[in-house]
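BUG: 3D viewer hangs when loading the predicted structure for this chain

Environment: internal workstation, default settings.
Expected: structure renders.
Actual: progress bar stalls at 90%.

Input used:
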Amino acid sequence: MLVHRRFYAWIQANPGKVDFWLAVAATLIFALPFLLMRGGQFVEFVLSAAICMALAWRRRRPVAGAAIQAAACILQLFLVPVTALPADFFALVAVYSLAAFAPRWASVGGLILASVGGVLFIVQYSVIPFMETGYQLKTALEQDAPVWVALEAGLLVAWMFGDLTRTRRLALQALQDRARRLEVERQQERELAAADERSHIAREMHDIVAHSLSVIITQADGARYASAEDPAVAPKTLGVIAETGRGSLREMRRLLGVLRGDEAASTRPLPSLADVEELLGTVKRSGLETALSITGTPRRPLPPGAELTAYRVVQESLTNVLKHAGPEASAEVTLQWTPAGLKLGVLDNGLGAASALHDDGEGQGIKGMDERLSLYDGTLKAAPAAGGGFRVEAFIPYTEA
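Structure tokens produced before the viewer hung:
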């Protein structure tokens, strides 16, 4: 970084220190010489020092600093009646500081007070001395008119520059506040997105692991007893277990690829309604008799996410049948296309009312299905069927453009 830029950055970061040392420098230049003069002009030194040192508060406490300067200038009219003080120049700085850093009432009030003070200044140090030398009041006023106009114009220009600085400062502050708010909002959005993604991944993990393990456990238990009478059952059962495990492993790798940011993994196709028959085939091989019924014609395709949701509902429902419906159970899956959307049903003939516990131990299965469906304005009903068994009914409406 260049030296002047570093210096400018330091000034912007330390305005209080800058004002203090400028006030000290002004005191040394405009006040200290009065004290060093022969005989020492103590009153002039004190008044000049007050005017100069008040500059140290021109940004942090502009009203207090301007009040000190105004008090010193008023006392000057009475205590130093002959000559003005060089430090009076800083009245322009006071007007600028009030316009730039003080409230609006103090800004306007400071300009009016400085204008009146300018008139008194000219009267005290110019008009009265002219009249004492024999000039008439009219002549003295005419002689001092250009000075008065120049002084008032200088005060007005200082106030205008201060007001422009104030406007720029407030605009910059508003932009900074807006940037901070946007950053906070972005952070909140990132946190919400991360929480939503964690929930989505948790649902996917549950669907994949719960279904696959249910099939594997069912096959393993069945093979353990069946192989005692027919050893030929074991190879077939182990083949189903291996196939189910490999499918689950592929799905897990896809999810882990998404977490790692692996584009090749994240772009692989997700399950859809077209994969329901394959899902039922896997379930049949695990020993659960299933039937699929599809009626109606879709008015238009569902979004890919909605089809994935429908697939997961079927998968979760069949997994619950495997886990809870008991032996010799069967299930029927129905997909009915209506003008409003897709009606989906899974009915088993298992344990009936006891199957109200169709869920994993922590209630994540039905809860996960309901959360998935709510994303697409869908509904879910899961309860024991009247004639025995357990029924899951879901509805996914078409997404209107």
